[in-house]
Specification:
Blueprint (H helix, E strand, L loop, with lengths): L23 H17 L12 H21 L10 H18 L3 H11 L9 E3 H8 L3 H4 L11 E3 L6 E3 L7 E5 L4 H5 L4 E3 L2 E5 L4 H26 L2 H17 L26 H12 L5 H13 L4 H11 L8 H15 L14 H6 L6 H4 L2 H13 L3 H20 L3 H12 L12 H11 L5 H7 L5
Antiparallel strand pairs: 1-4, 2-3, 4-6, 5-6
Helix pairs in contact: 1-2, 1-9, 2-9, 3-8, 12-13, 16-17, 17-18
């Protein structure tokens, strides 16, 4: 029986060393090639019909080279001020998700065994039939998996054009230890049984992607340490050069720069422009007057990067936080002023913090993402309340968008895609955008496509928004 190998695109495998010349032109060409794969959605890794075996091998070798060069470019990044590592992990995670989803079951199984290895607690994932044998229980019967809605659906398979029953193995039901996806339990997006999250492998792709990103982060940190402690001088100088090239190729999110930005009206009046995560945090501050530390940091950075100055943010927290009752502003400023100034790089290490990306928010347990953290019932309640506030002639259209387009993405565990579709509820048209990768991206798209004007737009167009 032939042993299944990792696909050539999977980076965590023992492969023959790749040798290449370190000419600047080649390095920059390889890096730009990788960026094209990220940005243009060219996720293809199969041999093309018009491609010889040598051409295919050369293309895949270049892909391995470009991946290695990117890793090398991260090794000298400043941990506090750097942004390339988080960008790299997020882009590689997206690439993995597409390629994993398009792989056959044998490859998926191989990757799952690597991402969820055995530890002191035992094995951390099983196909459903194996877990049934271990627990000595008929899980298909207990969980109702054998019913017509779940397992007997017919699906269209592009490989060969056949229609394949899911029981034949294309879309397997798998079981993952809940420690690797506790958010799926909190939000009730999958079945939990005796410490195992059980669902179709495709519905757990976002969970598998998160695990891949965690493994990639650990691998990157180990690689950085090894390069910085063991690599000879020429290699370290090469990594510095690559890092500088990447910094020029991939600037910070300048397109999301809201310096000197002002809304027409208050933040409350513009709440629907904001990403759902920020709407939730601001709503909780207004009603409960309290946020956990990481949520304060998340909201504080958003307020900072949308033009709120230090003094205005100091007033914001003083006015809403319940733990400031019965104390003067001067006492409040003395207690928490340092923390707020720290956000702006005015205290401590003087780090001018960027707003974290959606990938960071979703992969860090203490930050908040509506479509990942809230139960589906709560999300429905929030959105239905908004829809009922709309004019009657808009309610049916928006309800259908939620039911037919947004809700399925939430149930599939695709928070970034769900967030993108949420835009269609708050702007005039059914907006087509694949996914949201940054909270400020959501705000920018809201402003560009919504009817609310900002002071910036009024000044630019010479028109006042009455």
């Amino acid at each position: 029986m032939m042993r299944t190998r990792f696909p050539i695109w999977y980076p965590f495998q023992e492969i023959e060393s790749i040798k290449f010349k370190t000419k600047k032109e080649e390095i920059e060409s390889l890096l730009r090639g990788r960026l094209l794969v990220y940005n243009d959605g060219d996720f293809n890794y199969d041999q093309r019909p018009d491609e010889s075996h040598k051409e295919y091998h050369d293309r895949m070798t270049e892909e391995r080279k470009s991946y290695t060069l990117l890793k090398m470019g991260m090794t000298n990044e400043d941990k506090e001020k750097g942004y390339l590592s988080s960008w790299f992990i997020e882009k590689e995670g997206d690439l993995f998700e597409k390629r994993f989803s398009n792989s056959n079951w044998e490859i998926k199984e191989k990757i799952l065994r690597h991402l969820f290895p055995n530890d002191d607690f035992g094995q951390n994932w099983y196909p459903l039939d194996q877990l049934s044998n271990i627990l000595d229980e008929k899980l298909e019967t207990i969980l109702g998996i054998g019913n017509e809605d779940h397992m007997l659906r017919k699906i269209s398979n592009q490989r060969g054009g056949r229609r394949i029953d899911v029981r034949k193995g294309l879309h397997k039901v798998i079981c993952i230890n809940f420690r690797y996806a506790d958010y799926m339990v909190r939000s009730r997006k999958s079945t939990l049984y005796k410490g195992w999250i059980i669902d179709n492998v495709d519905r757990l792709t976002s969970t598998i992607k998160k695990r891949y990103e965690d493994v990639l982060f650990e691998d990157l940190e180990n690689y950085k340490e090894k390069i910085n402690s063991e690599a000879p001088g020429p290699i370290r100088r090469l990594t510095e050069y690559i890092g500088n090239v990447l910094t020029n190729m991939i600037p910070r999110n300048a397109e999301f720069d809201f310096s000197n930005f002002q809304f027409e009206g208050s933040y409350d009046e513009n709440l629907l422009l904001f990403p759902p995560c920020i709407q939730d945090l601001m709503g909780q501050m207004k009603t409960a007057g309290y946020l956990k530390h990481h949520n304060r940091f998340q909201l504080g950075l958003f307020l900072k990067h949308t033009g709120m100055g230090v003094d205005d943010q100091m007033n914001y927290w003083f006015n809403f936080a319940v733990d400031n009752l019965d104390i003067s502003y001067d006492q409040f400023e003395k207690n928490v002023g340092y923390t707020i100034r720290h956000l702006y790089g005015m205290e401590g290490g003087k780090t001018d913090y960027d707003m974290m990306s959606c990938g960071t928010i979703q992969s860090t347990a203490n930050y908040h993402c509506r479509f990942q953290d809230l139960k589906i019932e709560k999300i429905k309640e929030i959105i239905q309340e908004y829809i009922f506030s709309l004019p009657a002639d808009q309610q049916m259209e928006k309800a259908n968008i939620f039911k037919n387009k947004l809700e399925p993405l939430i149930k599939l565990g695709k928070p970034s895609e769900a967030c993108a579709k949420n835009l269609s509820l708050t702007i005039p048209k059914d907006y087509v955008w694949e996914r949201i990768s940054h909270p400020l991206q959501y705000l920018k798209l809201s402003i560009d496509n919504g009817e609310t004007k900002t002071k910036n737009e009024e000044n630019k167009n010479g028109v006042k928004n009455d």
